[in-house]
Amino acid sequence: MDKDEDINQLTDLLIDNEIDERTIEIALSIICHRFSFTSGAVYETDDIRFFYKKETYSNGFNLPDRVSYTISKIPGKVDQSMHFITRVTYKPSTEINILDVFHTENLIIVPLTNTESQGFLVFTGNNESRELNSQEKRHLFIMTGLISRYIITRIGENKVKLMQATYESIMDSTGIDIYVNDFYTHDILYVNKSMAIPYGGKEVFEGRKCWEVLFPGQTGPCDFCPQKHIIDGNEKPSSVYTWDYQRAFDGSWFRVFSSAFYWTDGRLAHVVSSANITDNKQKEELIQYMANYDELTSLPNHRKLLRDGEQIIEHIEEYEKMFLLFFDIDGFKAINDTYGHDAGDNFLIELSQFFKGIPMLKDCVYRKGGDEFVAIIHGKGMTRMNITNLSRFIHNRFEKTWLLNKTKVKCDVSIGVACYGEDATTMKELLYISDMAMYQAKRKGPGNTCYGIDVVKNFD
Fold this sequence. Notes:
It comes from Coprobacillus cateniformis. This protein has helices at residues 3-14, 21-35, 98-102, 134-173, 193-196, 210-214, 278-292, 302-315, 332-339, 341-356, 384-398, 427-444, and strands spanning 39-45, 50-58, 66-68, 77-79, 82-86, 106-111, 119-125, 176-182, 188-191, 241-246, 253-262, 268-276, 320-330, 365-369, 372-380, 402-404, 407-409, 412-419, 449-451. By secondary structure, it is α+β, with helices and mostly antiparallel strands. The chain folds into 3 domains: 3-165, Beta-Lactamase; 175-279, PAS domain (Beta-Lactamase, 2-Layer Sandwich); 293-454, 2-Layer Sandwich (Alpha-Beta Plaits). The strands form 4 sheets. A 7-stranded antiparallel beta sheet has the order 3-2-1-7-6-5-4. A 5-stranded antiparallel beta sheet has the order 9-8-12-11-10. Helix 1 (3-14) packs antiparallel against helix 2, helix 1 packs parallel to helix 4 (134-173) and helix 2 (21-35) packs antiparallel against helix 4 (134-173). The longest helix is centred in the middle third of the chain and has 40 residues, at 134-173.
């Protein structure tokens, strides 16, 4: 075959073809046949320690699958960016004897780029291989240049794929859910794996707007969308906006970070990243619960009583009435002294269940401390007669015995009542008046109820 025909054959093979292993192997075989080489191979680097053999052509001679990265510093004769190494002319470095590495007496190494650090072509000859003349070197230079450009394209594509895979791996391994949407159309541009999995995978997000996936059935942007917080008056990216969000279908809590930035095509985009804080929220809720609820009875405590009462007063309407009922158990000390503190605790638990079972007291009774309980009753149409009927019902229950561990115990309750607006206008005053009214009821004897008007008001 004419020498130029070899080049034409190689050109026809490589031009406009898909970059694949078979094409490269055929190209290597054309070069090896043209110059009577024993074998030829492509080596590409892992950028760390080794060059790995990719495609290869061999006429009964196997090249190593990998070689040390140190051979990228190749000594020897260089001609037109090709290294011609023979046992006669080669003086091995102290680091490596390159001919021994490839188990040959004659070697040609052609860098794929202007340095061997990315990869190289290698060709071996038999022991009788002669040195190429200048014309042959020119042809080899042209032919290896053709295949090198072909392989370099692949290396570049592989690096892009590797970078994309690395980027995806990083995004999927951060423990943070991330998605990006177009700032104005809300079309989803990117979503990472951890964000997508609970909704059915990344394909669920493709070609859709964020609310269509996150809030099925919704027909427009979310009312709480924070976009107005992440751009300035010129619609330029500004600060990061942070907020907490609870996912509706599983109750998980997330700390969400929203910010604006420019997408790869220049459009303004909105990136939303979120970290699961369900455990933290549960711990916060537990701490809040412990701070606001009584451990024994599970009723809200004195601290929550004051805060809830102040909020009710702050928002009470003119036509609403608000009553504070103060309960104190008469004879509770005798239960503790006679049957022990466990029995006393059991009685308080039974009593709290009784209070919570009364519709008027549901969600509005508190344990102030010890054997003292307080209820806040308010609403439209609430009257003193309602409170009187409630008090009578409670006293009737206390006329019966309580069963504690198969032991029947008997006690009474004294009730003091204060009315907002008539007796006091602050929570502190109402609590004081109802307390004084309760003591007034206690002085009258077991099973009594007294109102604020029965008490002489005496504030500091």
